[in-house]
Amino acid sequence: MPYTKRRRLVRTAVAVALGATTLAACGTESADSETESGPASLTYWTWTPGMDKVVDLWNKGPGKKDRITVTVKKQASGDTLVTKILTAHKAGKAPDLVQAEYQALPTLVSNDALADISKSVGEAKGSFADGVWQQTTLGTDAVYAVPQDIGPMMFYYREDLFKEYGLTVPTTWDEFAETARKLKKAAPDKDLTTFSANDSGLFAGLAQQAGAKWWTTSGDQWKVAIDDAATQKVAKFWGGLVEEGAVDNQPMYTPAWNKAINTGKQIAWVSAVWAPGTLTTAAPDTKGKWAMAPLPQWSASETRTGSWGGSSTAVTTDSKHQGAAAKFAAWLNTDSEALNALAKESGIYPAATNAQTSGAFLKPPAYFSNQADFYTKAADIAETTAPSAWGPNVNVAYTTFKDAFGAAAKNKSDFGAALKKMQDDTVADMKKQGFGVAR
């Protein structure tokens, strides 16, 4: 059965939710009690390029009217920013607003760093696909952030080389494997793609598409299922291709990978909507030779994709103007002028559905000028994003992935053992941190 919007509407709350005991202690200061007008001077920690120009629109428009001024403070991204936010929060000095990747939200919420802004931004829910909005609620009635950008996953391929070698764009993963083998037989010096152990987010997205739910809850305890059947299927599939040499086993984003993509040694890439920007730099000589298609499916009857990347705008519990901060967060990620500016100045792919086929997205990326319907197709794919299930120590799981899968890919050894190592390390760390973990 296709993964349709109807199915998303009737699914139960995603079990990434924190346990009831934990939630009772989190987000205790609520934006709901704060006024949404100024005067207020807010600080926003973000790594997005050009954000200061976008914020200027607020300060000169809605912000000026409501006497709410926002100042951008540029930060590093990823775990570095999460650590900095938590350090500042322990001292009671976190900024009013922070940019947070979706997988970081459970960590920030479990440390009581993010406010529940549900009553201030609840009307924004209709601007986002259900699978996207769900990532900011953690499966509860609370809302801990407003979605900003997303990374629905897609399949990219060299049209000219697919034609040259008589290849058909795969619609299932079985077809993908056969395509890799057919290419290797026709051109032993080429690879369809590579398995990159440096990219834990890619593997997580592939598992998400397969139906994985790595972190869920049972009462007030966490359940960790990184080695669930869905993820085992993904690991076995890619491990088998690496072992038989049907795909390469080298990491991405290296000079060698760039050269392989640019010269046609690798002729396809499992990536996300932001891929055109990367290809522009990595493979400048192949502009106009690539095309994008939906991700292959595990069953021909399915239509779903995973996510690789994406972030949100959250309000901290340390903010003395949570209502004002929430108002800005909603404007930044739902207002048409703000979204157009984010696309132009920051190059993001917006989470808001109405912005995905308007403004800057009326025309395809310059690199894909040969595919006029690029963003129309991308919006359709984004609508099929499967729900995610993040936990409070994603960083540990990702670090173990890089180490364990890195060794397995290099040695062409058992990916199943690497997956078990990822599971065991994640559970051990959660217990060490004091989280209740159900068997």
From TrEMBL:
Keyword annotations of the record: Cell membrane, Lipoprotein, Membrane, Palmitate, Signal
Range of residues in the leader sequence: 1-24
SUPFAM superfamilies (UniProt xref): Periplasmic binding protein-like II (SSF53850)
InterPro entries: Bact_solute-bd_prot1, SBP
UniProt cross-references to Pfam families, sorted A to Z: SBP_bac_1 (PF01547)
Protein name, UniProt field: Extracellular solute-binding protein
Organism: Streptomyces koelreuteriae
